Amino acid sequence: MEKIVSLGKRRGFIFPGSEIYGGLAGTFDYGPMGVLLKENIQQLWLALFRDSRDDMYGVDAAILMNPKVWESSGHVAGFSDPLVGCEKCKRRFRADHLDDPRRCPTCGGTLSEPRAFNMMFKTHAGAMEDESAIVYLRPETAGGIFVNYKNVVDSIHPKLPFGIAQIGKAFRNEIAPRDFIFRLRELSQMEVEYFVRPPEWEAAFDAWRATMHAYADALGLPRDAVHEFEVPAEDRAHYSKRTIDFEFDYPFGRKELWGLAYRTDFDLSAHQRGSGVSLEYLEDETKEKFIPHVIEPSLGVDRTVLAVLVSAYREDELGGETRAYLALSPRIAPVKAMVSPLLKNKPELVAKARAVYAALKREVPQVAWDDNGNIGKRYRRQDEIGTPFCLTIDFDTLGQENQTAPWLTDTVTLRDRDSGAQERLPITDAVARVKEAIR
């Protein structure tokens, strides 16, 4: 983990939040490379979970919602963790994360009896700071989907089964945020609420289960590092009748990566009671009215980013030196290819490299230019951020030193990140190679 955290900061993936002021526990900022990686992970999710289907619709709900939403959903009363405090050093811990819930893991002091600690962030809306103005930062994105269910049905008129997808921020006042970006107080979620006829929930559950495994494969997560855990009834959330946790082998242990839950009709029924508004679905053919049941694939963006970085991190020997690199799938790599002149003080090389860079950038998103330092150092930098290909323009490209081999004119050196192998290709073939890899 230390190597990944160090690489993340050094190469512009992830920075500690508010670092120049000493930081803030449970918060991290995404840098230039991290933003691109995160966006590519989200775009891949959108492609697989929403855009490739005919039964999915998107929303982007507000973070601040009427507090009655969270009262109806059960979060005000039940969204809590067991909190204990040390009588000696005054530190606080989650009781369910301790090996011995009676002894402080820091100083050995006696811990208090556990008490329920609600993890929702509370604030006020408007000029008054009294009970009537209390609102909450949403603890999950699902709430915004459920309260917009009726709006989607009334405006789009979808046929069952159908789903509503959303990517957005959620906030949880974690007692003890830890393990880098695994447990955060401000996080991003990718969630689907898939509405089905009650008898059809099992088939939909299994279909989304397969989609989640396909997404793991597309991200490049090793199959032997992703595990299914059938959550027993006593450990499931209050809304769930069946839950499978997709767990991942992080460096700090096997932990939950994603979740797949059968939420029955709990949420829509609760919001129907709380709001007094009918959330029943009307079947056009039979004129039957009922409240649909829900399958929820829920995926944490930050935990996914961490799993991708863990899976991609490599160290090997190349050219007599130890190198670290990220073997990212070309589709999600923050930079797809780097274009570079062999020497930056040769105007003819720079001009040709700029032309190649412009041509590649028209065909491929996220192309980098690098002429800083010698070519070996450039390769190492690109390896560390996971760039699959490097295109180098040299004198052979210009044909200046190869009058006896004119076929080298307008060719480039294409370097593969994982093997370090280099081959000479016509520029058009090199561009085609990059395009095919990211497709």
Question: Could you characterize what this model shows?
Answer:
About 0% of the residues have low confidence. This protein is of the alpha+beta class. Strand 5 and strand 6 form a beta hairpin. It is built from 13 helices and 24 strands. Strands 3-10-11-17-14-13-12 form a 7-stranded mixed sheet. The protein has a 5-stranded mixed sheet with strand order 21-20-22-23-24, sandwiched between helices. A 3-stranded antiparallel sheet has the order 4-9-8. The protein folds into 2 domains: about 230 residues, Bira Bifunctional Protein, Domain 2 (BirA Bifunctional Protein, domain 2, 2-Layer Sandwich); about 100 residues, Anticodon-binding domain (Rossmann fold, 3-Layer(aba) Sandwich).
Keywords:
439 residues; alpha+beta; BirA Bifunctional Protein, domain 2; Rossmann fold; 2 domains; seven-stranded mixed beta sheet; five-stranded mixed beta sheet; 24 strands; globular
Structural classification: alpha+beta
Helix content: 25-40%
What Rg, in angstroms, do the CA atoms define?
A: 26 Å
Supply the CATH class of the largest domain: Alpha Beta
CATH topology of the largest domain: BirA Bifunctional Protein, domain 2
Q: What's the domain count? A: 2
Distance linking N and C termini: 31 Å
How are strands sequenced across the largest beta sheet? 3-10-11-17-14-13-12
The portion of residues forming beta strands comes to 25-35%
**Could you state the CATH homologous superfamily of the largest domain?**
Bira Bifunctional Protein, Domain 2
Number of discrete helical segments: 13
| Overall body shape | globular
Number of strands: 24
* Uncertain runs: 401-408
Under the CATH scheme, which architecture of the largest domain would be assigned?
2-Layer Sandwich
Q: What is the average of the pLDDT values?
A: 92
Could you give a short account of the major beta sheet?
7 strands, mixed
